[in-house]
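Retry 2 of 3 after timeout on previous attempt. Resubmitting structure tokens to design endpoint.
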């Protein structure tokens, strides 16, 4: 709907170049939101996923560019550490919000230590992964659709069912013999891979890195997950709806610019859209319960 309004206001947006210009930056938020969706599916919220994407962006523009083998090891270590958060949360029974918030400071600190100011360079092969073109279809749409497909497939696999099961009724899952710690590790590993992909995309799209580049993504990803139809109580996720929610929130700033509205209203507009959708969902649920 947002894209349709922009196209009606400026038909040039419908061109391949115009769509890529708008939607390619949205890819990073889509990937972060996918990571957040799996965490929310387990009845938790990650307050450090945006900072983690920023750290990966810094790693890819510094170590991965200067010393590829060391950069690859650093990225693998980062994803492993992220997955370990799930085990720590489950083993010590610490609220996920507390652990992930603490981890966000670690991710930010490491990023600042590696790169105090924005800079770095995107490796050529990484830039090539996001700059190819088929000529007749925007690359951004293909990549966003691919993310949606991968998320949908994971959710439909037995693994996805088990992960949602722990978000819906963990007691029943444990009594059935499923290991909560093991699947907490798996949940955060899956989320970490998507968040790492978001960080790589940030570097490729911006051709440089900034540890603060993913900061706004954390709360936006929670909003996009809710907009997409997921339940913050866990157990219910919507892969396609989540991707659509992320794209919608990412386009708000561009929409305001098209309508000649100050970007100062960006956050307020995102909040109003989220509240409106939640209100509509609540009204629909109430009507169904009355029938």
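Retry 2 succeeded. Sequence:
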């Amino acid at each position: 709907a947002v894209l349709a309004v922009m196209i009606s206001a400026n038909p040039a947006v419908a061109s391949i170049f115009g769509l890529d210009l708008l939607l390619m930056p949205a890819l990073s938020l889509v990937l972060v939101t996918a990571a957040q969706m799996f965490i929310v599916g387990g009845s938790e919220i990650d307050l450090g996923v945006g900072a983690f994407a920023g750290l990966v962006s810094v790693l890819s523009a510094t170590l991965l560019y200067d010393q590829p083998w060391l950069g690859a090891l650093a990225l693998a270590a980062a994803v492993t550490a992220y997955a370990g958060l799930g085990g720590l949360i489950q083993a010590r029974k610490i609220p996920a919000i507390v652990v992930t918030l603490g981890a966000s400071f670690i991710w930010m600190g490491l990023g600042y230590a590696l790169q105090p100011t924005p800079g770095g360079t995107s490796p050529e092969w990484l830039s090539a992964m996001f700059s190819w073109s088929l000529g007749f279809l925007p690359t951004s749409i293909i990549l966003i659709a691919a993310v949606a497909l991968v998320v949908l497939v994971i959710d439909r696999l037995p693994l996805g069912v088990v992960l949602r099961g722990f978000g819906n009724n963990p007691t029943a899952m444990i009594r059935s013999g499923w290991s909560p710690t093991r699947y907490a590790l798996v949940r955060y590993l899956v989320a970490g891979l998507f968040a790492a992909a978001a960080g790589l995309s940030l570097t490729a799209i911006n051709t440089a890195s900034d540890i603060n580049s993913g900061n706004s993504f954390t709360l936006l990803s929670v909003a996009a997950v809710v907009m997409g139809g997921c339940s913050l109580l866990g157990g219910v996720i919507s892969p396609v709806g989540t991707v659509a929610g992320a794209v919608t929130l990412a386009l708000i700033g561009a929409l305001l610019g098209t309508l000649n509205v100050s970007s100062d209203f960006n956050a307020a507009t995102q909040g109003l859209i989220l509240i409106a959708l939640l209100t509509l969902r609540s009204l629909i649920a109430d009507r169904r319960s009355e029938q």
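Attempt log closed. Residues 2 and 248 are 7 Å apart (CA to CA).
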